Structure formats: structure tokens, C-alpha cells
Predict the 3D structure of the following.
Amino acid sequence: MPINNNDILIATTNPGKVSEIQSCLGKEFTLHNLKEFASIQEIEEDGKTFEENARKKAIGYSKATGHLTLADDSGLVIDALNGAPGVKSARFSGDKLPNEERTLIDHRNIKKVLELLIDVPAEKRTARFVCCMCLAKSDEILIETRGTLEGIIIEEEIGTNGFGYDPIFFVPSLNKTVAQLNQDEKNIISHRGNALKNLKEQMKNIF
Ligand code: IMP
């Protein structure tokens, strides 16, 4: 059934994520974020998979607000760690401490990954960033997409751009870590960029 309303709630409070999604979807969509709905209860990301978390947030926030809602969940999957940190990527080295800066959390997460991989040789340090997106209207799932970026976890941090695990995630085809790419270069190859491109394609069928 076609949807005539181009207002979409993005299930995040992160303005960077909203502007990245806006630049991919285009100006015909009016995007809102969770800061506009301060009184609604936060939905816990306690699923076992990225898909489950994206679905849970899209349906939960759509039901709570009455808006068409787009949610994503992303993280790093390392083969030698049986898929860890996976859905626990943001809190791999423990929960956020009161007033702790995002960069400090990122730093201790990276430290934990490098310690766990200390004896793992280069050829076994394969990994991927994964991003799952879900667009829902109330409890109906309209679109689900998944994007990945393949790479290798190197032994030390290189580069200062980006966030999270970017400085240790090396992309062989570019001979750079993700933290050595600017935002536009990252969007072209990233897991989030790929999931978004796929989403935009499928949205043409329902809007
Ligand atoms: P979220 O889905 O945006 O909440 O991301 C979960 C966590 O996965 C982040 O806190 C990062 O630790 C990690 N992550 C997700 N995407 C990226 C990325 O593009 N670069 C580096 N780390 C990422």
C-alpha cells in the first residue's frame, strides 16, 4: 500500500546520524528525531542480533509516537572472537560511566579488542562492520536492509577521523583504516551507507 506521508521519525538522538540519513534520502523526506519526543520511554537494545534490535526500536518507537519510524543497529563483528563485540559493540568494555566522554569509551573498547586479539595472526584478524535498518509503521515492518564493510583488525590505532572502532579497522582495497577516510569517502563504502542505499531503493516502491 503506498504511503503518502513523507514524515519519518529516526530512532536516534544523534544529529550526525539524522543528517547522514537526510543526505541519502533527499529533501522530499522530513526527518524527526527522538529529542522531539522527550517524554517517551527509551527502548532497550537487548536483542541477540542487529536485525532484532533495529526491528524492536522501529516498531516500539512507531507505536509510541504514531509516526513512521526508521531505526538502525550497527556494530563490529570479529571472526576470531566468534562474532564479538557484535550487538555489544557500544558497551564491550563495560557500561558508560557517569559523565564519561564518548571518545574515552571508544578508547577502552579498542583496548579490549586489541588485548583479546594479541596472539591472533594478521590473516585471522578478519572482521566486518554491520548495519541493519528497519522501517516500520506501528507493528508492521515495511522494509529491512543490511549493509556490511569487510576489513581487518590491525594491531594499533591509525587515523583520527570517525568514531568507535574506525582507527583499528583496515580496509585492504583502500590501504587505509576507516579513521583515515573523510566522511564522504566513508559514506561511499560503509555498512551504514550501503544499508541506506538499499533502503532508498526499496522506499521508491512504497512512497
Ligand atoms: P550504534 O548502532 O550507532 O549504536 O553503534 C553501536 C556501536 O558500534 C558504536 O558505539 C561503535 O562502537 C560501533 N560502530 C558502529 N558503526 C561504527 C562505525 O562506522 N565505525 C566505528 N564503530 C562503529
About this structure: The chain has a mean pLDDT of 94.
